[in-house]
Amino acid sequence: MKTAHLIIIMGFLSSIFGCKTSTTDNETEKTPLHTLEYAISDVGIWTWWATDSTKYVQLEFDRTMLLLSEATNEKPPSNKLAIQFKSPITAIIMTKKESKLPDNWLSLFNEDKLEPFQVDYEYFSFDSKQIKEMMELSDDSHTIFGDNYENIADIEEKVQLGFWAGEIGLVVVADSMKIVSHLGEIELNKIPDLHKKWWEYWKNYWDLIDSDNKLPYDPLCEITIPATKQNMEKIKENINKENE
């Protein structure tokens, strides 16, 4: 687990609201997909998996930095998110030699008999180049269904996700994907705004933490604590500028 100091520093250095970036022709371009990567991977956990190999693969994550519902007086906002990959082409499990998981761990995970896996911030991407680099880190890999990754035609045009979560990793390639919360489908272009709103909520949480009007305890905000007063003030300034 990352320390709180490192968590907030990564968020702070990822620009105003934080997101991973890709560089093309020496230009840094931030997209909704990069924001989604950051929002899930910074402190997120992989909580569930389900598949019908001919129809879909569904991955569920919690502790995402997205405001998916409003906070109430009784409970914090929801951070649970699912990504549904439609018409999947392949699904590949990667493992490291230190893995102690049983061979049927995916079935156990689907049945909620395993604890969630901490997503690795450095290795979570929708980009094929980065996914290939992740696959090179694997000590062993198993194609659950479909073709081998290197045999997929027009791979750059496919929707794909690769990530490591501790001793195991996963790669999924599909024709399309959709993002879903308990409120329904979320359009990808809405992700940056939901991420921005989460940071605004986080700022408000810490502004009120020592007041009589403090918000309900939120584990995600408590993980992502202000590293220093100076950093906190800088983040507030950036959020205010963004709202001008």
Description:
- By secondary structure, the protein is an alpha+beta fold.
- It has one domain (21-197).
- Helix content is 29%, strand content 29%.
- It has seven helices and eleven strands.
- The relative contact order is 0.20.
Lay out the secondary structure:
Layout: H1 4-13, E1 22-24, E2 27-29, H2 32-41, E3 45-52, E4 56-62, E5 81-95, H3 105-110, E6 117-118, E7 124-125, H4 128-135, E8 140-146, E9 159-165, E10 168-181, E11 184-186, H5 191-207, H6 219-223, H7 229-243
Antiparallel strand pairs: 1-2, 3-4, 3-6, 4-5, 5-8, 5-10, 7-9, 9-10, 10-11
Overall structural class, as computed from helix and strand content, comes to: alpha+beta
Beta percentage is 25-35%
List SSEs in N-to-C order: HEEHEEEHEEHEEEEHHH
The rounded distance between the terminal residues' Cα atoms is 36 Å
- Identify the overall geometry: globular
Radius of gyration: 18 Å
Give a concise summary.
By secondary structure, this protein is of the alpha+beta class.
Index terms:
about 240 residues, 9-stranded antiparallel sheet, disordered N terminus, 11 strands, 7 helices
